[in-house]
Amino acid sequence: MNKIDTITLRGRPREFCVDGALAKALRVFWTKGYEGASLNDLTEAMGITRPSLYAAFGNKESLFRKALDVYEREKLEYIGRALQQPTARGVAEVLLRGAVENASSSDEPHGCLGVITSVACGEEAQSIREDVLERGKVAKHALVERFERAKTEGDLPAHIDVESLTNLLYAIVQGVCLQAGSGATRDELNRLVDTGLAMWPSA
């Protein structure tokens, strides 16, 4: 995507940084969720007019998906790091600690954009909710495959159901995100992770 976009409005070119505008839109969506973010909220935060928004990004739904791309690339990079860990427990710890850091950063809105959107979307935003859930399935599938390899390597007990183990991790991640959005401190969230890791199955 171009760094600078020029939109012609009534004969006057309007120039703005597309990446910067997307980052501001992401913050609005992250704070208010998809449905809670109005077009006025978005255009005010992005510093552009509605015609400029439509010309550069399409409609609100398209803008959200572009912002979600940025979120996954920049804020969920810890998932890729987790998958590269040499042990299954290491995968779980990097995933959970990354979720804590992402959801409780002092520089960003608290909570998780995907969790906020997936649980808050009403009928009129079902396509957005479905997109968020489908994206989540990609990461979940990668974790299941990683834990299957761990079983093969003897790093996880042979009786472990890796899909259920992955679902448990996701439940903890979702709990971290929801509690962060409700005001839980980073220390409190890390203690939650400590408890979850204490129950990790040993080979």
Kindly identify the CATH topology of the largest domain.
Tetracycline Repressor, domain 2
- Class from secondary-structure proportions: mainly alpha
The domain count comes to 2
Superfamily at the CATH H level of the largest domain? Tetracycline Repressor, domain 2
Instruction: Tell me the CATH architecture of the largest domain.
Output: Orthogonal Bundle
The 3D shape can be described as elongated
Number of strands: 2
Assembly type of the shown chains?
single chain
Q: Helical percent range?
A: over 70%
Low-confidence stretches: 1-14
> How many angstroms separate the termini?
47 Å
Cross-sheet strand order for the largest sheet:
1-2
Q: What is the string of SSEs from the N terminus onward?
A: EEHHHHHHHHHH
Backbone CA Rg: 19 Å
Question: How is the main sheet built?
Answer: 2 strands, antiparallel
Mean pLDDT: 85
